[in-house]
Amino acid sequence: MEPGRRAVEPADHEQLSAAGGGGLALKLVYEELHRRLIQRQVLHADETTLQVLKLEGRAARSKCYMWLYRTSGDAKSPVVLYEYRPTRKAENAAAFLEGFSG
Question: To the nearest 10°, the Cα dihedral for 76, 35, 98, 15?
Answer without folding.
Answer: 120
